[in-house]
Amino acid sequence: MRSILIAGGGTGGHLMPALAIADALVRLDADVEPVLVGARRGVEARILPTRPYRYYLLPTEPIYRTQWWRNLRWPVLAARVLSLAREIVRWEQPVVAVGTGGYAAGPPLVAAARARVPLVLQEQNAYPGFTTRRLSPRAAQVHLGFPEARQHLRVAPGTAVHMFGNPVVPPPDPRPTPTQAKTALGIDPARPALLVFGGSQGARALNAVVSAAVAQRLFDHVALLWGTGPAAFDRYRHLHAPPARVIRAFWDPIAEAYAAADLVLSRSGAMTTAEVCVWGRPAVYVPLPTAAGDHQTANARALADGGAAMLVPEVELRPESLGALVRDLFASGNRLESMGAAAASRGHPKAAESIARTVLTLVA
């Protein structure tokens, strides 16, 4: 059994691609064993015990951008984490090391590179993260979720750069029709459906503006599917009022909500935008302004420039303007249709399989 080290995590946006690639590797080659490496303080500490893979959790931490004084311990912490990462590489003897980004990815990939293990980088965002930018010159393969990321990378002459998209769970086959999905969710099939969510943790700014728009009756013409995030659900659950509004803490699974949606309003994390594109849904993106490297704005701008979405900066988000924008978009059916088609053209439902198959060429 040959092990493939997959390092990434800290957030779901880096962990879920790692798991999708691991699943695809096992489907394609029963003789390889994915071994995952993450951070003790990341979401992987909760999720990996529920998955069938061996894993290691390192005591690594992110770089703090506002609480800068917390970075003073990084020299000591980095030495310890690198030492542990070297032990993992020495023990596992991986044939390939795959990195999906996040603060959990760097130390294991550096240790693997020093041990002359071939590196594979999977970058989700239009503006690459720190780990990808630093290690791309040493990578055997780089897999991009956005073609726009290529211009920000320095790669060696022998590095293969692929644009397979981001690995997400594809829609079921056959897909439920919008009417079927709306009926199953308990909303009015005759109304256009607006799906709102801010990622697995929700988004305070989106929640505040959407609740104000509901109070001002600016969404009375739509069926609202609203994921508040677990922490905010109790604050807004009283607004749950089918068939006009269905409110949940989060959408899991989210397939039925995507199938019902005629328009999506969300943050623009890489995995969210990948899912929206795979489903071919038009979107209004409100990037998280504090995201590292402002990568969410880069993601949203790339899709807006391609005609697949609209970008609304958080500082410009107001109930009245949002209500008017949603009303105008639903009144212009052709525009929503063309945005959805542009989104679908950037969707990659088989990304995980394509990445895994290419990684296995290094194993062979």
Structure characterization notes:
The protein is an alpha/beta fold and 364 residues long. It folds into two domains: 2-168 and 349-363, Rossmann fold (3-Layer(aba) Sandwich); 178-345, Glycogen Phosphorylase B (Rossmann fold, 3-Layer(aba) Sandwich), CATH 3.40.50.2000. Helices cover 40% and strands 16% of the residues. The chain has helices spanning 12-28, 44-47, 74-92, 106-114, 130-135, 178-185, 204-215, 233-236, 255-260, 270-279, 295-305, 319-331, 333-345, 351-363, and strands at residues 2-7, 32-39, 54-58, 96-99, 119-123, 141-144, 160-162, 193-197, 223-227, 245-248, 263-266, 283-285, 309-311. Helix 1 links the parallel strand 1 and strand 2. Helix 1 crosses helix 14 (351-363) and helix 7 (204-215) packs across helix 12 (319-331). It is elongated. The two termini are 13 Å apart.
CATH architecture field of the largest domain: 3-Layer(aba) Sandwich
How many H/I helical runs? 14
Give the tally of β-strands.
13
- Share of residues in strands: 15-25%
| Biggest sheet features | 7 strands, parallel
Percent range of helical residues: 25-40%
Determine the N-to-C terminus distance.
13 Å
Indicate the mean pLDDT: 92
Radius of gyration: 21 Å
CATH superfamily of the largest domain: Glycogen Phosphorylase B
